[in-house]
Every structure is written in structure tokens, then in C-alpha cells.
């Protein structure tokens, strides 16, 4: 019996004979370290181990190790080690890592395989995302800069674009309120030039034009590419004149399933605050009467216990035919003020499925994100990003109590022009926006031949916003209006549809490489919404959740437009596009593209436009004379020409519109709404046209340890859209939108990367970017629409001293317009130079000045020079980065000094400077160069220290712990709070605001774990 059972079950089953029964037990085989039998018992699995390093001997963590032809794979740990059980006969293993040449090695009978990966011989061989495709960096013929996720700044950010601030020469990222969790960034490329058609670049996320960066978690971003010149951006036609920013998210990769956890906590601290008079100083100077309290209004608005957290989890993997990546994140952030905050969470997934031996590829992206925003705004008309509370905190009498002395349960409601209790304004209302973002796109690609493919993309992008407002019975408007509560609900939706077809063909004939792209694009943009409001509620119990319980007019007739409104608009864009790329012998490159585009916003006589582009490059380093110079590894000269457009003006501007003309009684005595012509329509209205020229030089020197580029550009814009004064009659209205005016910009940009030190234990890399840009208004009007100049930037009341800018033919955009300061007279009144002639006759500004005679250009608010200086160190398992940034050669109009730095301002608190540096002035505010200060600054923007501890064999493959500080210190002569917080984009750069959000220093502590 025992002999038979042994032969039947071999060693896989144990048996025991108990009486007349035989009890069988399955045996778990002992694990063999190198070879174990697979399930089909026909192939033996080989455990392959090894160590992967770079040319210097440093271990490479995160290298993909994949058994070719299977989904079996792994990645190297923090020490560069790997272990993989191979499952196929005669296996071949593929080793791949970004920035290094891929290697395929036949295993044969080996069980240990160590690999040295070689870096690409030239950094110019990187793959760069461009419009409707990719290119090798070495083949680029236009001004394109790509920043990978490993090169981006680290830390806690409100916008992904803050991660490349200073990383791209010519890209200006302005953060007027970096500490507001709901405030984005202001971005422009190579200066501003448009009045009414927008100056912001086109954002494209995973090929979806018009994407919203708030729908992307910063950890999901693989790269951000900036198309700076017209040749690169022309393929996007009427939306490319301000440049294009392409955001590529991370995708799944074939091989072992990878899990990433990325988390940080953050905290903001006030980095600078206005030096205003204390209550005692206020009274000593006789500024106003003592109201009994001692209130630091600024401190009362600060939330010192603000914290934020971000948790991110991603799972990716797949095989040669199927790849998938899913990520999710959760983020909360409290503002440094007492009202604002943000909570968001989202899910993003992408997949690629190949079938029919690669003939068919299916892919797509799905993104869904919810954001709940507690907003700071106190203004009904502008509830978002309104920082008026901090203006009140500067100017209010510091002896005024916060609470009503006669009724301490209520706030002290203040009266007067532009005067209110900021604590009451923020504490007696609920102002919240609930946003839902979603993107669904689906791609079908047919690889008809090895060198011929066609692809169709279908996409839908939406944003839903529900804005909720409730001002309770203790708010100023309730108390002043003698009612309880006002509620307002606004629901708005943006829905975009995209259909694109693209075909690609490439061939190589001898030394000739040819690539052809052709396609069709259709986009539809929809916006609709409505709002309703009510007030005079029985109590505050319901808030905005039972809006029908109110009695808005107190039983009196009301205008329905005061309690509700709705709207809807649509825009369509259709385009045919093409591109030809040609190279000869890896020496000469040529690119030509076109976009023929129509847009419903354009006038009936100008629905379609053609946007061509040409560019070429010559690899100078291919010359024998250059090849003999050992220090030069690569040298490429580029030239480009491109025509782009700008169409960011309002919809229906070119059409004849009807607007409400009030209410009139009909014959029955009923009041009815009547309508009439609402504008001067213009059937000739078209996109703004911009022609761009670019000359560039790409270089790699000293064994490619030093690389970079130099670019020089000229942009010429024409047909600028603006509303001009026209005679009435023959026109019905006195203003009309027309294409008039020309503008130009010139600049130089430099980017340098230097691998200064690279050894087995220590490395040091330097990155430098710099730019010079100057924009000018060339022509303002024409023979039909007369205009020589335009005033802009009206300063706020009370005591509005006039406009701060004047834009005139031949002047620089952002030029300040004012008087030349000539000191003060014996009474302390400001003197100015008559006729703006310094050294001539000094006259009293308040009584003798003539604006038409004595004002002149006194400075410019757009920085001409920008510089960034990055330093990255690594020593064994530690890494350190220090990133410096600066702006130079520009001025800032310091409104704090003008409004709150002069003793003549009545009954308000002042800066200490009013009795210090400005103590000799007794008269009121005047726009002079006295208040115009140099904005030059140099700042340690970001410092990050990281540690990657050694991890043993196990489930965790890598760990990195890091700490980051943003806004470490600033070197500047500017006497305001922070020159970097002053906006420098648009047509009114360098204007210091009175509503200044607190300047913050951000601290973040994070951990990144790979499984």
C-alpha cells in the first residue's frame, strides 16, 4: 500500500493510514532559491539577480527590468539591485531608464547579470512633446523648452506652473498672492501685447486644448513643455500668439506593478507685514480720536495655525500590449487669513491597449476632481480673490473695537466711504465655491503600416461651479439695511468638446528623413449659468438652503433682474492642419506647417485665417573643422518664422446684439421689458495677427557636461483689438471694437546647464536661465480710427490722483505717466518740475500743476531682465537644491507709500514712514517718480533637502524624506512688502496694490515611497 501511494503522489501529497481510512494532505514545496517548477511543469523559472549602475559606478534606482515578450518585470531598489524570476525559454531582459540608452541582454544560463547603463551621448536626444506629436530634441528647429518632473521645483504649490517658475527663459510666472490656496498664477511668454484678446498662453493637457491646470495634481505631471516662438505655436493658429504650454501627465509602463505614495504637510508664516502706527503712536500723532480699544487689525485677520496636507497614491503597470495607470490624491490647505481654505480630491487614470499585433491601439484618459473653496472675497461684485480686508487692516483707526461696545454679541459696524470692519466682513458671511472638473478622452489609432498611422481623438471636458453666498444678520449690509440675511446661489457650467483626426507618415530614403502630419480639429466651447438671490429672512437658520423663505422687496415691487439672471454662450473652432519635417544626413533640418482655421467669434467677412510657419536648423558641429575641436560635442543653429493669432475677446463681439433698454408701460398700463441695439457690430472683426522671427543656437560642450541654448526673437503684432471712440451718428454707440494698432517685442534668452561635478559619491549641477525682453507700442490708430495714446491704470479713490500709465505710439508697454519730483517747499508741499524739465522751474503740484503740460514718462513696470540660478547637490543618499530667482530693470508704483505714507491723508492710520522717510511732505498724494521705486530683487526662492535611506529587500523599493522652504529671503531696495508679490504681467505691470494679501514663507515636509 505504501509503495503504491508513494508512486501515485510522489512528494506533492502526504498520506497517513488511520484504521480503514487514508488521510491525504497537500504539501507546499520548499522554495528553491534559483529554480522552481512552473505551473505547466514544462518551463523552469530562473531567478535572475544583479546590480545596475551608471558610467561613474553610481547605483541607479528605479530602472525598469522587463522580460521581453511578457508582462513580467520589476524595478531596481535604492541600491540599484534587482531580482526577477524569469518564466520563458531563452529569455531576453530589457533594461530601460529615462536619460539612458536601453539595453537588451540574452540571459542564457546566467543567474547573475550586472549592467552598466550608458547615458545618451547627447542631451539633445531627449524626446520632446510638440504640437500634435513628439520630436527628438536634437531635431528641433524652433524655440521649444521642456522641463521634466525631476527638474521641477519641489514643495507645496497652488498651481503646477509654480513648479517651473524661473526654469524657462522668457516665461514669466507672477504670484501676487502665493499664500491664497484658491489663487492661481499669472503667466505670460515673451511679454504682453494685447488690449482685449488676452495675454495668457494656451494650455494643453494631454493633447486637450484649453485645459484647466486646476484639474491636475502636481504629482501626476511628467513634463511641461513651452512653445515660445511662432514657428512652434503656429499649428495652434488663432490661439498661439501668446505661446503654448503643453502639460503631459504620467503614463503606465510595461513591467511590474509599481505603487507610489507621495505626501507632504505644509505651513505658511507671515514673511513681511506693513509697518503701521501702533495705537499709541496713532494717538500721539493726533490721527483721530481714541475710541477706547487697542486693536491690531492685521493680526486679527491672520490665521497663524494654518496647515495643509497632500496625499497622493498611484498604481501603474502592464505588459507590452496593455498599460494602465491610476492615481488619486487628497489635498487640504488653510489660508493664512481667517476665511479662506481649500479641500480637493480627485482621480485620474489612463490606459493603452494594443491589439491585432499592434495594428490597433486604444487609449484614453479619465480625470475627475472635486474642489471645495472657501473664498476670501468681501465684495459681492467680485467675490473671488478680493483682498480688500487687508487694506482696511492697514488704514483703520487702531483704537476702534472689533465688537460693538453697546452690544458685545454684535460686531462694531463701521460707517464711511470704503470703510468697514474687516473681521465682521469675513466672519459674518459664508462664501464658498464647489467645483467639479472632469475630462474624458478616447483615442483610436491604426498603425496601417510601420511608417503610416492614423488616429482619432474624442474628448469632453467640463467644469461645474456652484457659488454659495450667505451674509447673516450680523453682517454690515443686514444691519444697515434693517433686515436679516442675504443669500445668493450661482450655478455655472463650462463644457468643451473636441474631435481631432491626425495622420502620420514617415520614411527614410538614403540619408533623407521625411515626416508628414496632417489633420482636422473641431472644438466647441459652451458656457451657461444662472443665479438667484433673496434677503430678509425670518432667521439665519437656513442660510442659502431655503432661499424661497426670504422677502426681498419687503412686499414692494421689485425688478426681477435684481433677484435672478441667466446666460448661455457658445463658440466653435474648426481647423485643417499639416506639417512637413525633413532632415538630411543628421545635419540639415527643415520644418514647415500650416493651420487653416475658422472661428465663430470672428466677423462674417473674416471667418477663416491661414497661419503658416517655416523653420530650419543646421548642425554646425558636423563640419570637419568643428569636429576637430574636442570641446564641442554639438552645435546647432536654428532660424524660424511663424504667424500666429490671438482671439481671447468676448463672444458675439462682432455680431449685432440687442440689450435691455429698461421697462415701459404698454397701452394696458403693464410694465414690459423693451430691447434695443446694444453695440456697434463689426463684420470685419478678426483675430490679432502676430509674426515671429527667432534665431537660436543649441550647444553641448566638454563631453556634454555643459549644454544650453541662446535665442533672439522679434515679434510684430498687428490688428490689435480695442474699443475705439467713434462719432454718433453715424454710429449708434460711441465705442466700437475694431482691429487697429501694431506692437512689437524684442528679446534675448539664455539657458545653460553645467554638470560641474559627477563622481560616485558627490555631484553638483548648475542651471542658469536669463532673458531680456522689451515690448513697444508701435502704432495706435489708423486713418479711420484716430488715436494717439490711451491712459490706463486709474488709481483708487478717495482722492484719485488720475491714471498711472499712458500707452502711446513709440513707447514701451507698461510706461508710467506722472510728474517729476522736485522736492518740497517751505510748507512741505510737493513740488514738481514744470514742463517735466528737471532743473528748470519748480512749481507746487497741488495748485500749479498742469497735467497736459507737466506730466511725462517716469518709468516702466515690466522687468526687462529676468534671471534664475539653480544649484543641485547630491552626496551619497542626501540631496540639496537651492534655487535663486530675480527680476531687474523695472519700477514699482508704491501705492502703500502714496496712500498711507503721507500725513495729509485724513483720519486713517498710516505707515511709520509717514513720519520718517516721508516726514518732510505735508501735502496729499500725487503721481510722481518719488513714489516710483526700483523693483529689482534677487531671492532664494526655494531650498530643498532630501534623504533617501537605504532600504533592504522587501515590499518597499525606495523612500525619500525631504523638507522645503519657499521664499527664504529677498535682497531688494523696494520698501514695500515684497516686490515678487507685485504683478508684472499684462499691460499694467508694476502697479503696487492697496489690497495686498499677506506675503508668506512656506514650509513643507514630505515623504515619497515606492513599492
In short:
The protein is mostly beta strands.
Walkthrough of the structure:
Helix content is 6%, strand content 50%. The protein is mainly beta. The protein has eleven helices and 57 strands. It starts with a helix and ends with a strand. A hairpin with a 3-residue loop joins strand 41 (742-758) and strand 42. The strands form 14 sheets. It has a 22-stranded antiparallel barrel. Mean pLDDT is 88; it is low at 16-21 and 28-43.
**Percent of residues in helices:** under 10%
The low-confidence parts are 16-21, 28-43
Main β-sheet, in a few words?
A: 22 strands, antiparallel, barrel
Radius of gyration: 33 Å
SS-derived structural category: mainly beta
Q: Supply the number of helical segments.
A: 11
Our estimate of the beta-strand percent is over 45%
Give a count of the beta strands, DSSP E runs of length 2 or more.
Answer: 57
Q: How far apart are the first and last residues' alpha carbons, in Å?
A: 50 Å
Shape: globular
- Mean model confidence by pLDDT: 88
Task: Produce the secondary structure layout.
Blueprint: H1 2-9, E1 13-18, E2 21-26, E3 35-37, E4 44-53, E5 64-67, E6 73-75, E7 81-86, E8 92-96, E9 103-106, E10 115-116, E11 127-130, E12 133-136, E13 144-148, E14 171-174, E15 186-189, E16 202-205, E17 208-209, E18 221-227, H2 230-233, E19 244-249, E20 255-272, H3 279-284, H4 297-300, E21 308-318, E22 322-334, E23 341-355, E24 360-374, H5 388-395, E25 403-404, E26 407-411, H6 422-427, E27 429-449, E28 452-471, H7 476-481, E29 486-509, E30 512-535, E31 564-584, E32 588-599, E33 608-619, H8 624-627, E34 632-646, E35 658-665, E36 671-677, E37 688-701, E38 706-718, E39 721-725, E40 735-739, E41 742-758, E42 762-779, E43 789-794, E44 803-808, E45 811-812, E46 815-818, E47 821-824, E48 830-833, E49 842-844, H9 845-848, H10 851-854, E50 856-860, E51 865-875, E52 878-888, E53 891-893, H11 895-900, E54 932-934, E55 937-947, E56 958-972, E57 999-1010
Parallel strand pairs: 4-10, 16-19
Antiparallel strand pairs: 1-2, 3-4, 4-7, 5-6, 5-8, 8-9, 11-12, 13-18, 14-15, 16-17, 18-19, 20-21, 20-57, 21-22, 22-23, 23-24, 24-27, 25-26, 27-28, 28-29, 29-30, 30-31, 31-32, 32-33, 33-34, 34-37, 35-36, 37-38, 38-41, 39-40, 41-42, 42-45, 42-51, 43-44, 46-50, 47-48, 48-49, 51-52, 52-55, 53-54, ...
Amino acid at each position: 500500500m505504501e509503495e503504491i501511494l508513494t508512486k501515485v503522489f510522489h512528494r506533492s501529497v502526504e498520506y497517513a493510514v488511520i484504521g480503514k481510512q487514508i488521510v491525504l494532505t497537500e504539501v507546499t514545496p520548499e522554495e528553491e532559491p534559483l529554480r522552481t517548477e512552473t505551473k505547466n511543469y514544462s518551463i523552469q523559472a530562473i531567478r535572475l539577480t544583479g546590480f545596475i549602475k551608471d558610467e561613474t559606478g553610481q547605483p541607479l534606482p528605479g530602472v525598469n527590468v522587463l522580460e521581453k515578450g511578457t508582462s513580467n518585470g520589476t524595478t531596481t531598489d535604492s541600491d540599484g539591485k534587482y531580482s526577477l524570476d524569469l518564466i520563458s525559454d531563452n529569455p531576453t531582459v530589457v533594461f530601460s531608464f529615462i536619460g539612458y540608452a536601453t539595453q537588451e541582454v540574452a540571459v542564457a544560463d546566467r543567474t547573475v547579470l550586472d549592467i552598466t547603463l550608458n547615458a545618451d551621448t547627447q542631451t539633445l536626444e531627449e524626446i520632446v512633446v510638440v504640437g500634435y506629436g513628439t520630436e527628438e530634441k536634437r531635431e528641433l528647429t524652433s524655440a521649444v523648452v521642456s522641463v521634466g518632473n525631476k527638474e521641477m521645483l519641489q514643495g507645496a504649490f497652488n498651481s503646477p506652473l509654480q513648479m517651473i517658475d524661473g526654469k524657462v527663459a522668457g516665461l514669466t510666472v507672477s504670484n501676487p498672492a502665493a499664500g491664497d490656496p484658491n489663487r492661481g498664477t499669472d503667466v505670460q511668454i515673451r511679454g504682453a501685447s494685447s488690449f482685449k484678446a488676452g495675454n495668457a498662453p494656451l494650455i494643453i493637457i494631454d493633447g486637450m486644448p484649453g485645459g484647466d491646470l486646476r484639474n491636475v495634481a502636481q504629482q501626476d505631471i511628467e513634463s511641461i513643455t513651452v512653445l515660445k516662438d511662432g514657428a512652434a505655436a503656429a499649428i495652434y493658429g488663432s490661439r498661439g500668439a501668446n505661446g503654448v504650454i503643453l502639460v503631459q501627465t504620467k503614463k503606465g509602463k510595461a513591467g511590474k506593478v509599481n505603487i507610489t505614495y507621495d505626501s507632504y504637510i505644509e505651513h505658511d508664516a507671515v514673511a513681511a507685514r506693513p509697518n503701521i502706527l501702533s495705537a499709541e503712536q496713532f494717538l500721539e500723532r493726533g490721527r483721530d480720536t481714541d475710541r477706547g480699544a487697542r486693536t491690531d487689525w492685521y493680526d486679527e485677520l491672520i490665521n497663524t495655525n494654518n496647515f495643509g496636507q497632500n496625499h497622493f497614491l498611484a498604481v501603474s503597470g502592464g505588459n507590452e500590449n496593455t498599460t494602465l495607470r491610476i492615481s488619486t490624491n487628497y489635498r487640504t490647505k488653510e489660508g493664512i487669513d481667517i476665511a479662506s481654505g481649500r479641500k480637493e480630491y480627485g482621480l485620474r487614470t489612463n490606459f493603452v491597449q494594443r491589439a491585432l499585433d499592434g495594428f490597433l491601439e486604444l487609449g484614453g484618459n479619465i480625470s475627475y476632481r472635486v474642489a471645495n473653496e472657501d473664498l476670501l472675497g468681501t465684495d459681492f461684485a467680485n467675490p473671488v480673490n478680493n483682498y480688500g480686508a487687508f487694506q482696511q487692516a492697514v488704514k483703520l483707526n487702531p483704537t476702534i473695537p472689533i465688537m460693538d461696545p453697546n452690544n458685545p454679541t454684535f460686531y462694531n459696524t463701521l460707517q464711511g466711504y470704503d470703510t468697514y470692519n474687516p473681521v465682521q466682513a469675513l466672519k459674518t458671511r459664508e462664501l464658498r465655491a464647489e467645483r467639479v472638473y472632469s475630462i474624458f478622452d478616447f483615442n483610436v489609432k491604426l498603425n496601417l503600416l510601420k511608417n503610416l498611422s492614423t488616429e482619432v481623438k474624442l474628448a469632453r471636458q467640463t467644469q461645474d461651479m456652484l457659488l454659495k453666498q450667505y451674509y447673516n444678520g450680523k453682517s454690515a449690509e443686514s444691519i444697515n439695511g434693517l433686515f436679516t440675511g442675504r443669500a445668493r446661489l450661482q450655478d455655472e457650467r463650462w463644457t468643451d468638446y473636441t474631435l481631432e483626426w491626425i495622420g502620420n507618415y514617415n520614411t527614410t530614403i538614403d540619408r533623407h528623413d521625411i515626416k508628414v502630419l496632417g489633420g482636422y480639429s473641431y472644438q466647441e466651447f459652451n458656457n451657461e449659468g444662472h443665479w438667484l438671490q433673496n434677503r430678509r429672512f425670518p432667521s439665519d437658520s437656513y442660510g442659502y438652503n431655503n432661499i424661497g423663505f426670504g422677502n426681498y422687496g419687503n412686499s414692494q415691487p421689485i425688478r426681477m433682474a435684481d433677484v435672478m439672471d441667466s446666460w448661455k454662450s457658445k463658440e466653435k473652432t474648426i481647423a485643417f492642419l499639416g506639417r512637413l519635417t525633413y532632415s538630411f544626413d543628421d545635419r540639415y533640418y527643415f520644418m514647415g506647417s500650416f493651420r487653416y482655421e475658422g472661428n465663430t467669434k470672428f466677423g462674417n467677412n473674416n471667418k477663416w485665417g491661414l497661419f503658416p510657419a517655416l523653420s530650419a536648423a543646421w548642425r554646425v558641429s558636423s563640419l570637419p573643422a568643428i569636429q576637430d575641436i574636442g570641446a564641442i560635442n554639438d552645435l546647432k543653429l536654428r532660424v524660424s518664422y511663424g504667424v500666429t493669432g490671438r482671439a481671447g475677446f468676448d463672444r458675439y463681439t462682432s455680431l449685432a446684439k440687442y440689450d435691455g433698454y429698461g421697462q415701459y408701460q404698454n397701452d394696458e398700463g403693464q410694465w414690459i421689458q423693451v430691447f434695443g441695439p446694444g453695440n456697434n457690430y463689426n463684420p470685419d472683426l478678426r483675430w490679432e495677427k502676430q509674426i515671429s522671427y527667432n534665431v537660436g543656437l543649441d550647444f553641448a560642450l566638454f563631453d556634454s557636461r555643459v549644454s544650453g541654448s541662446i535665442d533672439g526673437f522679434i515679434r510684430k503684432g498687428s490688428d490689435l483689438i480695442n474699443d475705439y471712440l467713434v462719432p454718433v451718428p453715424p454710429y449708434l454707440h460711441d465705442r466700437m471694437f475694431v482691429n487697429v494698432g501694431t506692437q512689437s517685442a524684442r528679446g534675448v534668452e539664455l539657458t545653460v546647464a553645467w554638470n560641474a561635478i559627477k563622481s560616485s559619491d558627490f555631484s553638483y549641477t548648475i542651471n542658469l536661465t536669463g532673458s531680456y525682453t522689451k515690448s513697444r507700442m508701435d502704432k495706435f490708430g489708423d486713418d479711420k480710427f484716430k488715436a494717439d495714446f490711451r491712459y490706463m491704470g486709474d488709481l483708487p479713490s478717495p482722492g484719485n490722483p488720475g491714471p498711472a500709465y499712458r500707452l502711446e505710439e513709440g513707447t514701451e508697454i507698461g510706461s508710467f505717466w506722472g510728474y517729476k519730483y522736485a522736492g518740497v517747499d517751505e510748507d512741505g508741499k510737493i513740488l514738481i518740475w514744470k514742463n517735466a524739465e528737471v532743473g528748470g522751474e519748480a512749481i507746487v503740484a497741488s495748485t500749479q500743476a498742469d497735467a497736459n503740460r507737466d506730466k511725462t514718462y517716469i518709468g516702466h513696470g515690466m522687468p526687462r531682465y529676468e534671471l534664475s540660478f539653480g544649484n543641485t547637490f547630491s552626496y551619497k543618499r542626501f540631496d540639496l537644491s537651492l534655487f535663486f530667482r530675480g527680476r531687474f530693470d523695472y519700477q514699482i508704483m508704491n501705492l502703500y507709500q502714496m496712500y498711507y505714507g503721507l500725513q495729509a491723508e485724513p483720519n486713517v492710520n498710516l505707515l511709520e514712514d509717514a513720519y520718517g522717510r516721508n516726514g518732510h511732505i505735508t501735502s496729499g498724494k500725487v503721481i510722481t517718480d518719488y513714489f516710483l521705486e526700483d523693483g529689482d530683487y534677487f531671492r532664494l526662492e526655494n531650498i530643498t533637502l532630501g534623504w533617501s535611506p537605504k532600504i533592504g529587500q522587501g515590499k518597499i523599493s525606495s523612500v525619500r524624506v525631504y523638507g522645503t522652504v519657499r521664499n527664504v529671503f529677498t535682497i531688494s531696495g523696494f520698501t514695500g512688502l515684497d516686490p515678487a508679490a507685485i504683478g508684472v504681467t499684462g499691460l499694467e505691470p508694476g502697479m503696487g496694490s492697496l489690497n495686498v494679501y499677506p506675503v508668506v514663507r512656506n514650509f513643507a515636509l514630505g515623504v515619497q515611497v515606492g513599492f
